[in-house]
């Protein structure tokens, strides 16, 4: 698992669980990788559930967190700017990079400034799809979202992630319901399915031989127990 290109760009509509996946990915990568790992929060539009809000957890695992709000007590200031520290994630080949991008075409626009570093075969851009979000509930919506992000980032989506969920109420049936759509998107756009996300409590109940993509157990870092 996680044998992806050094630069990993994570996109997904609001509520898809994009940031949750990015944080989980970074945490898993820290357990198997000896190289420096950094996660950059490029979401300058959405004020809620941003990966930088989990800076303390990430940094305790040796993961550097880069964001425009770094240094404020709660790492949650809504500052519409991109940290200059992001550039080193593209330039320094010794850093394993995860980049959490804004949820729609407007939010993803900051990625366009790094287009010269996005060389085919040197990066991955993963589209996180949650079938329970209205904007990506069907084939047309999911494809529209992907195409709009590709247009503003000047990059191609290289992998799909099924993250269909209802937070702690998610069942195996929910995951498989989302997988049906992601399989359709994969076939239509000829993009492979990389990961199939599921809560740790149900991940072992999925029959990984029955679908494309690797099972990716998810822990809810972004949601406090009371929410």
Q: How would you describe this protein?
A:
The chain has 227 residues and is of the alpha/beta class. It has a single domain, classed as P-loop containing nucleotide triphosphate hydrolases (Rossmann fold), CATH 3.40.50. The protein is 30% helix and 21% strand. The chain is built from seven helices and eight strands, in the order βαβαβαβαβαβαβαβ. It has an eight-stranded parallel sheet, sandwiched between helices. The longest helix has 18 residues.
Helix content: 25-40%
Total number of strands: 8
CATH architecture: 3-Layer(aba) Sandwich
Instruction: Output the strand order for the largest sheet.
Output: 3-2-4-1-5-6-7-8
CATH superfamily: P-loop containing nucleotide triphosphate hydrolases
Number of helices: 7
**Gross morphology:** globular
β-strand percent reads 15-25%
Quickly list its features.
30% helix, globular, 227 residues, 7 helices, eight-stranded parallel beta sheet, alpha/beta, Rossmann fold
Set down the secondary structure blueprint.
Blueprint: E1 7-12, H1 18-32, E2 36-42, H2 55-60, E3 63-66, H3 87-91, E4 95-101, H4 105-108, E5 123-129, H5 139-153, E6 159-162, H6 172-189, E7 193-199, H7 200-203, E8 214-218
């Amino acid at each position: 698992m996680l044998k992806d290109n050094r630069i990993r760009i994570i996109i997904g509509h609001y509520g898809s669980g994009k940031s949750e996946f990015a944080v989980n990915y970074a945490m898993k990568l820290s357990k198997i990788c000896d190289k420096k790992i950094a996660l950059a929060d490029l979401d300058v539009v959405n004020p809620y559930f941003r990966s930088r809000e989990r800076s303390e957890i990430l940094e305790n695992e040796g993961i550097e967190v880069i964001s425009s709000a770094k240094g404020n007590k709660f790492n949650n200031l809504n500052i519409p700017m991109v940290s200059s520290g992001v550039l080193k994630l593209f330039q320094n080949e010794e850093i394993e990079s995860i980049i959490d991008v804004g949820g729609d075409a407007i939010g993803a626009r900051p990625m366009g400034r790094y287009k010269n570093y996005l060389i085919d075969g040197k990066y991955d851009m993963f589209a996180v799809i949650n079938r329970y979000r209205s904007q990506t509930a069907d084939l047309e919506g999911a494809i529209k979202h992907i195409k709009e992000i590709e247009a503003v980032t000047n990059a191609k989506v290289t992998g799909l992630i099924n993250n269909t969920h209802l937070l702690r109420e998610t069942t195996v049936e929910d995951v498989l319901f989302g997988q049906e759509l992601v399989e359709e998107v994969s076939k239509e756009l000829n993009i492979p399915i990389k990961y199939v996300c599921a809560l740790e409590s149900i991940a072992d109940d999925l029959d990984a031989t029955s679908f494309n993509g690797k099972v990716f157990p998810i822990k809810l870092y972004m949601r406090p127990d009371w929410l």
